[in-house]
Amino acid sequence: MTDQKLLLRALGGETLPVPPVWMMRQAGRYLPEYRATRAQAGDFLSLCYNPELAAEVTLQPIRRYGFDAAILFADILLLPQALGADLWFVTGEGPRLSTITDAAGVAGLRPVADIHETLSPIYETVRILSRELPAETTLIGFAGAPWTVATYMVAGRGTPDQGPAHAFKAADRAAFSALIDRLTEATVEYLSAQVEAGAEVIKLFDSWAGSLKGADFDDFALAPARTIITALKARHPGLPVIAFPREAGARYEGFARAVGADCLALDNSVEASWAAARLQPDGCVQGNLAPRHLVTGGPDLVAETRAICQAFSNGPHIFNLGHGITPDADPENVHRMLEAIRG
Ligand code: CP3
Fold first, then answer.
1. Domain count, the chain
2. Is 152 a catalytic residue?
3. What is the pLDDT of residues 308-334, one digit of tens each?
4. Is residue 71 within 6 Å of ligand 1 at its C-beta?
5. How far is it, in rounded angstroms, from Cα 125 to Cα 73?
6. Quick one: pLDDT at residue 3?
7. Which of 1, 80, 193, 276 is at a distance of 20 to 30 A from 296, taking alpha carbons?
């Protein structure tokens, strides 16, 4: 038991004297070595589909900082691409996709069984990583949750309020549900293949869960997460899963139990003392330093990092940010954060 990796121990419900730590987007543009490898690959998608280089950028933050976990380098939008959507990234702006706005668009998607044709390089990245990672580092695989992925597939890009996806849902709930169902099924196959290739933990990113309310939250955030996690755990008994229903607010309460997740990832808006009282009794929590502290640094970074560790010190906790580290973060501030956590 005690020779188990620290991240797996926390996910198993152990309270540790020092929490294991990793960061969302830890392989990213704030690191000069990432920018160099991305330039070598040519562009972001070429990097995602090049197993050697994707494994290299995954390992870079592990070498530099000794995080307790590595997250596979890929993107949540590779799955829609594997289902037949066109995908490209506009530098400095973000992703663009062909749009799906009606039942015919959903019917036109490629069969779920075909996704591995496109995604096999991702599984190769996982295989390389499971050979090359240090023995104490846990490998996390991931996918976007169906609602979040659907918001990009419907709008063809990121949107501030997910308006186009809400409009599709209002115009034809059955067709929108069919899209969510197709994504749910494809996500199970995608994540299962990552586990077979060597991923030890799975994280489900529902970055836009906060724009769903009431029955919409139940139908499009909670139910798909429960279906995916139930299927994964049936195929891979004991697989730990982290759920991230970002900005779900009060709907964070009971979410881990309802979907069967081992850990709930917390965004920046969640008060640590509230989460310790209301969420941590259900299992491990992960989070939740605001990424801006890694830009500004100084005494606030240290004080806030310590406050989060203190608030969660009576239960299982994985230290992380509340969202991805930003390109303008100072790599030295990550060392200061780690010093504040590990002392
Ligand atoms: O966390 C990691 O280090 C692992 C790799 C990872 C990336 N994206 C790499 C990436 C993960 C887990 C993601 C998840 C992802 N991708 C999410 C969910 C998490 C979140 O941030 O809410 C979403 C919504 C996406 C879609 C996406 N990918 C957007 C909106 C953008 C553009 C915004 C931006 O930061 O530029 C991306 C691009 C992206 N994905 C980058 C990275 C490192 C930057 C691309 C680059 O190098 O130019």
1. 1
2. yes
3. 999 999 999 999 999 999 999 999 999
4. yes
5. 8
6. 74
7. 276
CA-closest residue to ligand 1 atom 10: 75
The number of C-alpha atoms within 13 Å of 270 and in the hemisphere containing its C-beta is 34
**Per annotation, catalytic residue among 75, 172, 218, 219:** 75
pLDDT in tens, 28-77: 999 999 999 999 999 999 999 999 999 999 999 999 999 999 999 999 99
Start-end of H helices in 42-76:
44-48, 51-65
Q: Which two tokens stand for residue 271?
A: 């008060």
**Which of the following is catalytic: 30, 49, 65, 152?**
152
Distance of CA 24 to the CA centre of its chain: 7
Q: Find out whether 87 and 95 touch, Cβ atoms under 8 Å.
A: yes
- Per-residue tokens: 184: 């749910």
CATH number of the domain where residue 293 is located: 3.20.20.210
Structure tokens belonging to residue 216: 């919409």
25 has catalytic annotation: yes
Strands ordered across the beta sheet of 317-321: 69-71, 138-144, 201-206, 241-245, 263-265, 284-289, 317-321
Supply the pLDDT for residue 92.
86
Tokens of 338: 């780690």
User: In this structure, which residue's CA is closest to atom 28 in ligand 1?
Assistant: 75
Query: What domain range is 249 assigned to?
Result: 2-342
- Spatial distance between the Cα atoms of 148 and 183, rounded to a whole number of angstroms: 10
Q: Which pTM does this prediction carry?
A: 0.97
User: Does the beta carbon of 27 sit less than 6 angstroms from any atom of ligand 1?
Assistant: yes
CA angle 192, 193, 195 (to 5 degrees): 65
Please indicate whether residue 75 is annotated as part of the active site: yes
Split at pLDDT 50, 70, 90, the class of 2 is low
Q: Ligand 1: which atom is nearest the Cα of residue 148?
A: 24
pLDDT band for 155, please (50, 70, 90 cuts).
very high
